[in-house]
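Reminder to self: tokens first, then the designed residues, so the page reads top to bottom the way the pipeline ran.
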């Protein structure tokens, strides 16, 4: 810790706050200083006997406080707690001497004058005081909490926008699995043993990460602690940090908000990220900061790394003990060659996991307002590739041109004209609605809608380029009504007038 004098010499500042603000990395004054308080067996007082007091009393009891509640009368549930001996009821009006010996006071009456009086008296005695919903009168405020004891997350907005804090809490609730408390206790029970086994900090971090974020953690959270202990002992005995693994992760169609929780968690653990052309930089930024990033992307006929080399690279990195994240646009098992990539891993005995992503057809459909199926227009949807193999588009045209279905073409921009002609030649009417959606779900999204006969020229005149999807079928007509996503002027919808 730097002494104040030293700080003054370093920064030439005068007040404590000035000092703090001139420290690198500290941007502004903290309105409230966050702490966690050990209240077990500590005398605490709640002033007030209504519903709000009840909520606060429950929390204090959960923390093991020795609780007194002062109020002429108690709400039924508080009275119940008092009769069970969980708390002590002082059936009286507030008086300052009730504060004597208290560690902490919560004020929850509906009388502002009383509330402020209690606050002033507590302040005078140096007792921590909170006036519910009145941060200005409070010495401390209570955060919104996510309780996975012993793991506890607290969120506060300085008392000014509690709704915001609560909404963040709701989001965190969904991010932190319910079994985390169990996992935290499990981890704590091995803390010393792990420290002794891995004196090196980095090795220890990697060990813990593989334990707390891998299949072992799932075992603990699922409640099979005996099996988890056994496995943990085995790993400790082997001194294995936990070997490498490959995570084949779908990054979704491009908008970072459409990533899955699982994908995000794995991105934040990866040692190496191998990514494709379709993975946007905003997405890549979500990977762990010191993860190595390797571009292995493929543009059609312009392979940065041949597939075989990618497969070998993944095997090699995983065998070095790295956690390899293979990040792919959309869903890895939809035109993503995911099956080929993991076949090599499976052969080589490298542990792997596949994380699904939102495929671009789903993304495009939702963001362009084109439902892929619809009771009236399409009872099925088919995903096909417009990519040529051996110079031709090899598709099952009789099946694709049947009515009452939607066909989504991936990788079809360069063959759009041939595709549309083939649809018509095989019997799907020239007036069948058809759309192209470029950069779906991103700020650059553009949609052009026409028919099988007009779409190719529309795409050409608007300069629609890869990545784009072609959607064929009556559902395209709904875009006119259902398109909602216009994030920028660029993300326009063009509907051809007949
Ligand atoms: N696995 C990916 C598809 C990879 S093939 C997925 O599930 O989406 C590459 C093709 O996907 C592109 O040629 C294009 O047709 C389509 N594509 C991917 N992202 C797209 C996007 N944001 N908008 C439109 N099409 C996209």
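Designed residues (498 positions):
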């Amino acid at each position: 810790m730097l002494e104040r004098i030293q700080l003054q010499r370093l920064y030439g500042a005068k007040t404590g706050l000035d000092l703090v603000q001139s420290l690198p990395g500290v941007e502004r004054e903290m309105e409230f200083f966050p702490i966690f308080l050990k209240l077990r067996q500590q005398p605490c007082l709640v002033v007030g006997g209504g519903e709000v007091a009840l909520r606060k009393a429950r929390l204090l009891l959960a923390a093991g406080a020795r609780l007194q509640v002062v109020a002429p009368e108690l709400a039924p549930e508080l009275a119940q707690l008092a009769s069970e001996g969980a708390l002590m009821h002082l059936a009286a009006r507030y008086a300052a001497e009730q504060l004597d010996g208290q560690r902490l006071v919560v004020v929850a009456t509906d009388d502002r004058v009383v509330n402020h009086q209690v606050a002033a008296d507590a302040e005078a005695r140096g007792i921590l005081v909170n006036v519910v919903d009145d941060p200005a009168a409070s010495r401390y405020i209570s955060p919104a909490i996510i309780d996975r004891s012993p793991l506890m997350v607290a969120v506060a907005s300085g008392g000014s926008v509690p709704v915001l804090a609560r909404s963040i809490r709701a989001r965190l609730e969904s991010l932190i699995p319910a079994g985390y408390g169990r996992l935290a206790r499990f981890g704590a029970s091995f803390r010393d043993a792990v420290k002794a086994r891995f004196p090196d900090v980095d090795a220890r971090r990697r060990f813990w990460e593989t334990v707390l974020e891998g299949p072992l953690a799932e075992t603990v959270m699922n409640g099979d602690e005996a099996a988890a202990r056994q496995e943990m002992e085995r790993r400790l005995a082997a001194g294995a940090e936990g070997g490498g693994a490959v995570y084949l992760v779908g990054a979704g169609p491009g908008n970072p908000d459409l990533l899955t929780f699982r994908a995000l968690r794995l991105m934040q653990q990866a040692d190496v990220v191998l990514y494709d052309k379709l993975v946007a930089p905003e997405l890549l930024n979500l990977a762990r900061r010191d993860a190595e990033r390797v571009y292995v992307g493929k543009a059609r006929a312009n392979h940065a790394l041949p597939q075989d080399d990618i497969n070998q690279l993944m095997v090699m990195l995983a065998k070095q003990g790295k956690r390899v994240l293979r990040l792919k646009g959309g869903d890895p098992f939809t035109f993503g060659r995911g099956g080929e990539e993991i076949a090599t891993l499976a052969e080589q005995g490298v542990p792997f996991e596949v994380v699904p992503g939102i495929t671009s057809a789903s993304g495009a459909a939702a963001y362009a307002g084109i439902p892929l199926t619809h009771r009236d227009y399409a009872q099925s949807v088919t995903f096909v590739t417009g990519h040529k193999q051996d110079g031709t588009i090899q598709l099952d045209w009789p099946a694709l041109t049947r009515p009452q279905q939607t066909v989504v073409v991936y990788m079809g921009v360069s063959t759009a004209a041939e595709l549309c002609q083939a649809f018509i030649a095989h019997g799907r009417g020239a007036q069948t609605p058809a759309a192209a959606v470029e950069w779906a779900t991103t700020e650059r999204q553009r949609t052009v809608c026409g028919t099988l006969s007009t779409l190719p020229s529309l795409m050409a005149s608007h300069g629609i380029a890869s990545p784009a999807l072609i959607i064929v079928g009556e559902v395209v007509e709904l875009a006119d009504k259902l398109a909602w996503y216009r994030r920028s002027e660029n993300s326009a919808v063009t509907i051809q007038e007949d």
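Residues 43-142 form a domain with the Rossmann fold fold (CATH 3.40.50.720).
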